[in-house]
Amino acid sequence: MQIKRSTTTTMPSPTSPPVQNDADYFDFRAMERVPESHEWTGPQEYEHPVVAGHELEQDVVPVVDMRDDDDDAVAAAAARAAEEWGAFLLVGHGVPGELLARVEDQAARLFALPVTDKARAARRPGGGGSGYGVPQYLLRYPKRMWAEGYTFPAAAIRSEFRRVWPDAGDDYISFCAAMDEFHVELRALGRKLLAMFFQALGLAAAGGDDDDTERKILDTLTATMHLNMYPKCPDPERAVGLAAHTDSGFFTFIMQSPVPGLQLLRRRPSERWVTVPGVAGALVVVVGDLFHVLTNGRFHSVLHRAVVNRERDRISLPYFLGPPPHMKVAPLAAAVAPGRKAEYRAVTWPEYMTMRETTFGTSLSALTLIRVAPEEET
């Protein structure tokens, strides 16, 4: 993920990342006030902007219903939402509501474990970002987020969580069964949604290299899962759930509990944060940077963040889909308008992540580093 800031706001400057230790695993529920380590104050992008009443009526996060019998209409609706918002609520997707409830329950059980149990699966240096605790990029900030999380490859659920439950007992079996089933459902849904996006881009009729690229992308999608717990907070106006960022891959499904907390940045006609409602059974779809590249900027990656709640915990489960590490991602020919040039050069996901490190904590987007300069277009 990339931490970016709005051009009209400020945020604390990042510092060199401290060493992660036991102090990073503290009991949020024991806090009667927001401690200094987690207190964000002053003018910053996490404040809620004042929005005029007439703008509120326009700021309704789009909903795409996959139950519509007209596939072209569904694809067009998804494409329009990806163009205008960079995100939308997806309903009628076919993932059983019972499974979503079971996954949320298992995530809550995981986070309710004693710190000593969760810390057995702490993030390890050189571990590829997997594990429990504070991600390294967030450790660069002088203040901490009001959240705890666990990142893991979707294809390695059982081996990853043996670190939490080394005895592989009933809790381990129930947790892994729910996450495995969720992975199977979401990966299949990801392929279906991706095919719809390609349909909206006209790839079905394009043929040639785009057709080959489409098949390769559909067949090689990789998935990473992240569990987030945002505990209830005694003073939510002074805490941050998750700093504003864009996702780096193709797109993300976010399963969230009914407690609202996810916000999207709308840039037109003026900048303001819009809260995504907690709709039962719905999944949030968020466009990532590499899909922004693939569509030559037509589907734009959206800046989003998480805020916290005074009364209730909030759980979310982002399911990130992207290309395999070796695949070069570049604008598809069908996404480049006649007479125009591709705006981005080819890049692999690991290369792009390395570039984002250089822009971390600044107002610069890593997308600018792979833009084709005007003189290169000749």
Automatic annotation (TrEMBL):
InterPro entries noted in UniProt: DIOX_N, IPNS-like_FE2OG_OXY, Iron_ascorbate_oxido_reductase, Oxoglu/Fe-dep_dioxygenase_dom
Keywords from the named record: Dioxygenase, Iron, Membrane, Metal-binding, Oxidoreductase, Transmembrane, Transmembrane helix
Entry's Gene Ontology molecular function annotations: gibberellin 3-beta-dioxygenase activity; metal ion binding
Iron as UniProt keyword: yes
Organism: Zizania palustris (Northern wild rice)
Limits of the Fe2OG dioxygenase domain: 220-323
Record's protein name: gibberellin 3beta-dioxygenase
Tree of life domain: Eukaryota
